[in-house]
Amino acid sequence: MIFHPAVHTNRYERYGGGIYMSIRYACRCCGMKIAEFDESQVTEAQLGFDSLTPEERALIISREQSGDTVVSITCDYCREALNQHPELSLVGNPLQ
Questions:
Q1: Are 24 and 68 in contact (CB under 8 A)?
Q2: 74 vs 89: CA distance, rounded Å
Q3: How far apart are CA 14 and CA 48, in angstroms?
Q4: What is the pLDDT of residue 11?
Q5: I need a labelling partner for 77 at 20 to 30 A (CA). Which of 17, 31, 33, 56 fits?
């Protein structure tokens, strides 16, 4: 399920009386939310997390205090900008 602000106005939704945690994909450069999934609806294998090394997991997957999982990737816009201007990769947050 792709995150849509008009449908998901709250960070949490109730399923069966409980609060779910989400897995959110966000751009590491600009912070744009790319996608969000209900953690109970997908597995690590479906998302490809099981094929990551421990080092790769530590680099791209983090857990917020709220319990949500954030996967840091690069969005298409930032990827194209970095491909056209590789020197931007030397800056911490080049396209904030």
A1: yes
A2: 12
A3: 26
A4: 44
A5: 56
Q: Are the C-beta atoms of residues 10 and 66 closer than 8 Å to each other?
A: no
Nearest Cα to Cα of residue 23 among 50, 52, 43: 43
Tokens of 1: 């399920």
How do residues 6-54 score in pLDDT, each as one tens digit? 334 444 444 444 556 899 999 998 899 999 999 889 988 999 999 999 9
Q: What is the DSSP track for 16-58?
A: TTEEPPEEEEEETTT--EEEEEEGGG--HHHHTGGGS-HHHHH
Other C-beta atoms closer than 10 Å to the C-beta of 78 total 20
* Structure token digits, residue 18: 């409980």
pLDDT for residue 83 is more than 50: yes
Q: Which pTM was predicted?
A: 0.71
User: Residue 22: exposed, middle, or buried by beta-carbon count in 10 A (0-12, 13-18, 19+)?
Assistant: buried
Pairing state of beta strands 33-38 and 22-27?
antiparallel
